[in-house]
Amino acid sequence: MSAQDKRDTTELVQSSLQRRYAREKRFRFFGLAAITASLTFLAVLLITITLRGLPAFKQTFIQLDITLDAKTLGTDENPDTDALRKANYNGTIKNSLLALFPDVKKRADKKRLYKLVSNGAQYDLQRKVMADPSLIGETFTIWLPVGDDTNGYIQGNIDTTLPEKKRRFKDNQVQWVETLKENNQIERRFNYTFFERGDSREPEMAGIKGSLFGSMLTLTVTLLLSFPVAVATAIYLEEFAPKNRWTDIIEVNINNLAAVPSIVFGLLGLAIFINFFNLPRSAPIVGGLVLSLMTLPTIIISARAALKSVPPSIRDAALGVGASKLQVVFHHVLPLAMPGILTGTIIGMAQALGETAPLLMIGMVAFIVDVPTSLTDPATVLPVQIYQWADLPEKGFVEKTSAAIMVLLAFLIMMNAVAVYLRRKFERKW
Amino acid sequence: MLLLVVFVLTACAYVFGRTRAATLRKNGESLHSLPRYYGYLTAIYTAVPALFILAFWSAAEPTYLKHSTTNTLPAEIRALPEGELNLVINDIKNIATGGITQNTDDAVRESSAQHYADRKNTSQLLKSIFVVLASLLGALYGLSKISVHTRARIFVERTIMTVLIACSCIAIFTTVGIVLSVLFESLRFFNKVPFTEFAFGLHWSPQTSIRADQVGSSGSFGAVPIFAGTLLISAIAMLVAVPFGLMSAIYLAEYASSNVRAWAKPLLEILAGIPTVVYGFFAALTIAPMLRNVGESVGLSVASESALAAGLVMGIMIIPFVSSLSDDVITAVPQAMRDGSLGLGATKSETIKRVVIPAALPGIVGAILLAVSRAIGETMIVVMAAGLTANLTINPLEAVTTVTVQIVTLLTGDQAFDSPKTLAAFALGLMLFITTLILNVIALRVVRKYREQYE
Fold it and tell me: Would you tell me which residues 405-424 of chain B have a C-beta closer than 8 angstroms to some C-beta of chain A?
């Protein structure tokens, strides 16, 4: 190579260097941008939901003086329990509202006035009276939950500058609420209802207790079924299985099952557990069965990894002092692998907790008010509850949905935190 | 309750067995195994036969009761079609258990209910007797086996081994169960609707009317628009997920300091851990209206359930799948290859583009295939944010529907199980299963082969 050529090459490289460095910088920037964008989205998602959901943890109450006269209730002086249950509590609430604002005369206005108080408030009153029937004939003060629109107004969700026709919350309602506010008859408190009640068609009366219990029952079944089976499978495949066609098939199978769409497991549950074995629809036991089939591969894969990480020297030592092969595994290898297996199990459970689609297939979408108490009761789970509420048009349900999501995410974060803690605490370098 | 009794008996059997073996040992007999293995042996003999009887009895009981009750009904009720007969039987069961029914004053049903209750009581009684007897006999047999000649540990270990093997076969049974359940229902569907119509028909409206003489009573099951919709949404999702996921993976694997990596990787994986119903809610409530407003401001009409909103959010959900798998394969590329390229004077980005990525390509392709299968099978986001009507279009601003959405809508209503409508859901499920299975098999094979190459 001549000196001339050499200089040319150097020049060529020199002249292109700037361009290449710029390209390098750009490439690096794209990488950083991709990560930042993804994380920004995560932040936006979490912040939006928190902002929407926070108001739902507070509920507005209105203070009313209730007079329980037997005439309005439609009962006699000493009614029995049945009559008490059927009594017209709505009427007494309406009366006390009218007593507060005696100048409301028109039918339409009255209707609007009644809407200040939640439709479900009568049940609060009913419960109070049924617990203490001596209240009948008395006048007392009680705090009752307000209606959805009123709640929205108090939270500032309703733009009062809009023309009256375009909003659901009318001018006179605004006026009444303002008057009540001045008299300190409106208060915002922590929303216990949200944690103490089942589902309801009224957003202000709807709670997540039913779905939380449903989730718990379902997950219990899932855990009880999938954990032992998964650990047994992992032990067999990792410690005992001969390398042959059959075990190969099992392995490929497990890897594939881990990637089968969850909705297909729902179809399996519907066709086999419900139509073939005639198990009840919407029941936590079916949900648990389906979810445990779904989480099995996840737990198996992590359990195998945990078993694999136990060094062979431990096995050799135990065999050397005369333990049988099963004793080696159950007395030495399994305890050492347990933290890893538990971590995998928790992660699998977290997945199962957030799963919705297969449960829709087996009918856990019914509108269920009661809190489930057994494995065969109709129930729903938290993610399905979120799905159901997300579909409802009432403004109040948007808040409730977001709040339910916050509760779900809180559980997931807790479970993952425990998993991370376990891993950190028991991680051993061999 | 009965289960509890069996458990208590088993526990007792274990204690008895162990003590007996221990006494034998003290008396100078040289037993083969430790006393506790004789305890386990007795426990196994106590529990296993009893539990088998319990399981079989419980499984057979409802069928027997139904059959026996049906026989007490008058002939005209027995002649009713299957569905109505089941309703009657349900009524009877409700009466027998004291539940609420609509027609409680029906004499026939009352007497049948009496019969049902009687038979049920007898059956329960017999079941309890047999189960307890079986476990007692088992316990006695187990105790009698405790001697010098029994190798208890071998027996116990063999039993455990059988259990382990049985458990690992459950995965196979699950797959077989999926295939059979989906396949059978699909075959029934294809009996009613020809396969060619399903696979090539351009019109999908599964609504069948109740009376046969109404217009469109048969419904039409051309699934092409659904497949097209699924592909459209998945394509949008991949357009988001592949560049973002890949670039994130490259940055994390090649540029990021270990500190950044330790933080950014788990944070990215949170995206994969958020339940899909949350994404669905977010897509329907925040992204879709936002897209519509943006569309309006530039003069485009965007459907409120546009494919774009669902696809975008799904893409974001899939980013961590692409990134963490690609990250693994990129870090698996041997350092020597990078050093060689850098030594020749290439910049880092040139090394990545010309050396690392080509070397990691099979693995990356595998990761993308897995992500595609995830996108096709994703349900909640599309159920909440995509449309319901089948619409053959490639315009991402319009509403389209997907396979999973159709499965959910077809199966969540109250429908007779063998109507073509519900069966169609299983046919779609079959298609979904086959597609994702093929994608997964290819992807897993590619990834595995590639890993072996550098190990």
Answer: 407-408, 411-412, 417
List, for chain B, all residue ranges whose pLDDT scores fall below the cut of 70. Answer: 82-83, 97-106, 207-219, 413-418, 451-455
Q: Does domain A209-426 have CATH number 3.90.600.10?
A: no
pTM of the model: 0.85
Q: Examine residue B115 and state whether it is found in any structural domain, yes or no.
A: yes
What letter represents residue A284's amino acid?
P
Q: How confident is the model at residue A259 (pLDDT cuts 50, 70, 90)?
A: confident
Total beta-carbon pairs less than 8 A apart between chain A and chain B:
246
Predicted local distance difference test score (pLDDT) of residue A341: 92
Digit-coded pLDDT (tens) for A185-226: 888 888 888 888 888 888 878 888 889 999 999 999 999 999
Same domain membership, residue B224 and residue B144: no
Residues of A in contact with B408 (CB under 8 A): 263, 357, 360-361
- Rounded-to-integer distance, Cα B57 and Cα B37, Å: 30
Which of A38, A256, A361 lies closest to B411 in CB terms? A361
Number of domains in chain B: 2
Give the pairing of strands A58-67 and A186-190: antiparallel
* d(CA A126, nearest CA chain B) in Å: 24
Residues 6+ apart with CB under 8 A from B228: B392, B393, B394, B400
| Selection from B188, B293, B336, B433 nearest residue A267 by Cα | B433
Q: How far apart are CA B27 and CA A89, in angstroms?
A: 80
Q: Which residue has the higher pLDDT, B390 or A43?
A: A43
Can you tell me the distance from the alpha carbon of B406 to that of A363, in angstroms, rounded to the nearest whole number? 16
Q: Is B215 among the domain residues?
A: no
Same domain, B263 and B122: no
Which residue range forms the structural domain that includes residue B369? Answer: 220-454
pLDDT digits (tens, 9 = 90+) for B301-360: 877 788 899 999 999 999 999 999 899 889 888 899 999 999 998 999 999 999 999 988
Cβ contacts of B276 on chain A, cutoff 8 Å: 354, 356-357
Q: Is the residue at B168 inside a domain?
A: no
